[in-house]
């Protein structure tokens, strides 16, 4: 019997819907392989998502690395004097092609560079990001073009020719949830609320996007909300 060599996978795990679904996606595609999870602290106003990431990593027995970066500024997720937008109409055409207040400057670039550096000291691997198409206009570092350029940069810039993949880059969030529900993703463990609330606030951009995506996918969101109007 010929056994395929076991490969390594490094997952950027925030503890939200997308990266948690990606954890299950990798396990589904590569059941025998090693999957490590990386969660970053970068000066977020709250660390609730860290608890969700820890719960997800534990549920899937992933080796979990917590990495603290120097604080990133210039975002409503990090700067005390920048309030989070609430109750915005996310479908408004005035928001199309505008960078979101919750965009954190070049966050994914920093995360990927850190993961690449840590992994290139060990051996070959694929680095995985759960970015998706709904994010591509509000978040420049979630665009499919960015992922493909990052893949090339990481491949050329590392000893082990590491790769970067983001299989949901052209999916919308409802597609991710449909796939996730069919594959028993434990969405009850995830956290999305930018305000860091439990129950989730229901009205920040990401709570709204999550609620809309669950509704569009035709499933009940298992987490609770303060406001569901
Ligand atoms: Zn919220």
Report a brief summary of the structure:
The chain is of the alpha/beta class and 229 residues long. It has helices at residues 17-29, 48-59, 107-120, 144-156, 173-182, 205-217; strands at 8-12, 34-41, 63-68, 126-128, 163-165.
SSE blueprint:
Elements: E1 8-12, H1 17-29, E2 34-41, H2 48-59, E3 63-68, H3 107-120, E4 126-128, H4 144-156, E5 163-165, H5 173-182, H6 205-217
Parallel strand pairs: 1-2, 1-4, 2-3, 4-5
Helix pairs in contact: 1-5, 5-6
Bound molecules: zinc ion.
Zinc ion binds next to loops.
Question: Would you write up a description of this structure?
Answer:
The protein has helices at 17-29, 48-59, 107-120, 144-156, 173-182, 205-217, and strands at residues 8-12, 34-41, 63-68, 126-128, 163-165. The protein is of the alpha/beta class. It has one domain (8-186): Rossmann fold (3-Layer(aba) Sandwich). The longest helix has 14 residues, at 107-120. It is globular. The N and C termini lie far apart (58 Å). The model has no long low-confidence stretch (mean pLDDT 93).
CATH superfamily (homologous) name = HUPs
Poorly predicted sequence stretches spanning 5 or more consecutive residues: none
Task: Please outline the major beta sheet.
Answer: 5 strands, parallel
Mean model confidence by pLDDT: 93
């Amino acid at each position: 019997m010929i056994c395929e060599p076991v490969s390594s996978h490094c997952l950027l795990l925030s503890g939200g819907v997308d990266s948690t679904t990606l954890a299950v996606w990798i396990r589904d595609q590569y059941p025998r392989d090693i999957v490590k999870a990386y969660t970053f602290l970068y000066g977020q106003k709250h660390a609730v998502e860290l608890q969700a990431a820890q719960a997800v990593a534990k549920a899937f027995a992933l080796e979990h690395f917590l990495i603290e970066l120097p604080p990133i500024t210039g975002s409503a997720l990090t700067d005390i004097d920048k309030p989070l937008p609430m109750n915005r109409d996310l479908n408004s055409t005035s928001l199309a092609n505008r960078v979101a207040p919750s965009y954190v400057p070049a966050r994914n670039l920093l995360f990927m560079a850190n993961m690449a550096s840590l992994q290139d000291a060990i051996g070959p691997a694929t680095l995985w990001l759960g970015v998706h198409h709904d994010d591509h206009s509000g978040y420049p570092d979630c665009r499919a073009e960015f992922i493909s350029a990052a893949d090339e940069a990481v491949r050329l810039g590392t000893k082990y020719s590491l790769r970067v993949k983001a299989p949901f880059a052209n999916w919308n969030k409802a597609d991710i949830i449909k796939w996730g529900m069919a594959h028993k993703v434990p969405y009850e463990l995830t956290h999305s609320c930018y305000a860091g609330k439990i129950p989730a606030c229901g009205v920040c951009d990401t709570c709204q996007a999550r609620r809309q995506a669950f509704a569009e996918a035709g499933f009940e969101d298992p987490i609770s909300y303060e406001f569901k109007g």
